Amino acid sequence: MFHKVFREPFSYEKIPLETAIRKEKDRATNTWQTVKRIASYFLPNRFKLSLVIFMVIVSSLLGLYGPYLVGTAIDEFIVAKKTSGLATLVVALFFVYLFHSLAIFLQNYWMVGISQQIVYTLRKQLFEHFHQLPISFYDTRQQGELMSRVTNDIDNINNTLNESVIQVLASIITIIGTIIVMLWLSPLLTLITLTTIPLLVIAMRWITRRTGPLFKIQQKDLGELNGFIEEIISGQQIVKTFAQEERVKKEFAERNKALRSSGFWALTIGGFIPKVMNMLNFLSFTIIALFGGLLALKGHVTVGVIVIFSEYARQFTRPLNELSNQFNVLLSAVAGAERVFHILDEKVEQFDEDDAVELDTVNGHFQFNDVTFSYKDAPVLKNIHFEVKPGETVALVGHTGAGKSTLINLISRFYDYDAGEILLDGVPLTSIKRENLRRHMAFVLQDTFLFEGTIRENIRYGKLDATDEEVIEAAKKANAHTFISRLPNGYDTKLDESGSILSQGQKQLIAISRAMLKDPSILILDEATSNIDTVTELLIQDSLKRLMKGRTSFIIAHRLNTVTQADKIIMLENGEIIEEGSHDELLSKGGRYELLYKGAVPNDKEDV
């Protein structure tokens, strides 16, 4: 494998990484666009940046002036064997390096402030953008991989801005200044010294053509591994329940191996840069010593000039070395920035129309007129037509994939329908501002999500300005007050995001309390009583009856005994309504619903 990576040209087709590298190289044209985009974040801090650049120039010039004073001391005092004025030169040299250190401190101090501000802005933009993206975006991505954008990738940018930007600026200025002074002292010796540059260019070009794609692959592999870890840790109970530990370990090993491989080759090939630079440094010093000595013997240069050239040659290769080292860091940061900007460039949830309205009150009268919806060109709902009167309870039944959840997503405008029309109180749903629509809705889902904080804070999430008395009253109506009062700290009991100290039924009661506190006009219940013990289910059903009273409610239920009291039952199959009516009406028809209710449906369609 080693010889395949290092031969010319790079063999992309022979080893696993190279196929991916070829794909990443196709995207390498975005590199300069990404750099320009990062540069735009410096504009609000341009005054501080100008101070940083000024201090970089000062420190670089002082760094060049120091060796010049040393060479002057050799020619004018040591070779000439004079001591008069030497003390003054030593004092001057002391202050040169003192101010050199001060300039470096100031440039680093200001640059840290700039980089932290840029990273703060990026994190803020990314987090705010997450809240503007449609639900469909999250349906196709791992949470851990998205978290990696906010943490690993932005931290990578932060580290690069803190360290690399200053070093790159200082290195460029030092190289330019060094060449100018060297030409002034001895053009011939300068040309001889710079004979190593073509070797450097060839070596750098060979290395950087390979490190760029590899660093992109490394960042991609890291994000995928983080996403996998987050997913497996979150679903650890399911992993153990189905005894999938060994399979998960093998899959992790494969992903971990991919990251190890991409990281190994990125760092290995990138590690050649300092080695090449050290070799050129020694070569340059040898050339200066050899040809400088010959020129000194012929009187073309002095011993001090040779000393200055030796130091400048080191200063010349050192910034080149730093540039080459930082080039790898910059490539890695650009790869991370591309991933961040890729999220920022994702299309946000479709904006509301300019003439979109806000409803102060909602009665909950829904009309579905031949509604059609497709997801990625795959038809999901076809010609859905029904009416829901204010305060009615509608149950949606049908096997998995029938379109129940999709219908709920259209009601809440997580998706917008393709054709037809949904009216709410006579107003087209697409003409109502999303935020305003959802303000009149509450959801009680199968998988209850609790935020890290107290039980009181989790219930109050339904109405942030609610008083403690209102929170307690909502919990009482939801039959949650009794078990909350028995907890050691009552409503101030701390929960983690999984609510691990509570049972599934207790978490569901808190979710119902949250909805009860919000006092919505429209209620969405998605399997709110699944996976609950019998006693808790009775409590939940009792609290849901209170919650649904006087509200337009949509219920998705797999247990048909939970929907028999619904005003209207709509049975969906393959995205179409096949039956509609009350429980008794549907049983009297002797159709599909009756077979489903009596358990005569094939096993693959029992999930309703």
Question: What this model shows, in words?
Answer:
This protein has 608 residues and is of the alpha/beta class. It has two domains: 37-344, ABC transporter transmembrane region fold; 362-437 and 567-608, Rossmann fold (3-Layer(aba) Sandwich), CATH 3.40.50.300. Helices cover 62% and strands 11% of the residues. The protein has a six-stranded mixed beta sheet with strand order 6-9-10-3-11-12, sandwiched between helices. Strands 2-1-4-5 form a four-stranded antiparallel beta sheet, with helices on one face. Strands 7-8 form a two-stranded antiparallel ribbon. A hairpin with a 2-residue loop joins strand 1 (366-375) and strand 2 (378-388). The longest helix has 45 residues, at 86-130. The relative contact order is 0.08.
Count up the domains.
2
Total DSSP E strands: 12
Strand adjacency order, main sheet: 6-9-10-3-11-12
Annotation field: number of helices: 22
Oligomer description: single chain
Largest sheet: 6 strands, mixed
List the helices and strands and how they pair.
Blueprint: H1 2-6, H2 16-25, H3 31-40, H4 46-78, H5 86-130, H6 135-139, H7 143-185, H8 187-193, H9 197-234, H10 236-241, H11 245-270, H12 272-297, H13 303-344, E1 366-375, E2 378-388, E3 393-397, H14 404-411, E4 419-424, E5 427-428, H15 434-439, E6 441-444, E7 453-454, H16 455-460, H17 468-477, H18 481-486, E8 494-495, H19 504-518, E9 522-526, H20 534-548, E10 552-556, E11 568-573, E12 576-581, H21 583-589, H22 592-597
Helix pairs in contact: 2-9, 3-13, 4-5, 4-7, 4-13, 5-7, 7-8, 7-9, 7-13, 9-11, 9-12, 9-13, 12-13, 17-19, 19-20
